[in-house]
Amino acid sequence: MAGLSVVFAEAQQEPPPVPFPKVEQEELFLQAIEALDAGKTDTMVQLLERALPLDPTNPFAYVKRGQLFDLIGNNSRAVEDFSKALAYRPAFADVYQMRGCNQFKLGKVNAAVQDWQAFLQLKPDKETEHWQICVGFALLGHYEEARKRFDWHATTNTQDLEVAFWHFLCVARTEGLEAARDSIKSAPEEKRVPMAELHALYAGKGTESDVWLAVERGTPDRAERAKREFFAHYYLGLLRQSEGKLDEAKQSVQQALAIAKANDGFIGDSPGGQLRGGDIARVHLQQIDQRLTEQSAWENRGPGGAGTGLAYLATGAGIILLIGYTLRQQRRREAPVELAEKSST
Question: What does pTM read for this prediction?
Answer without folding.
Answer: 0.81
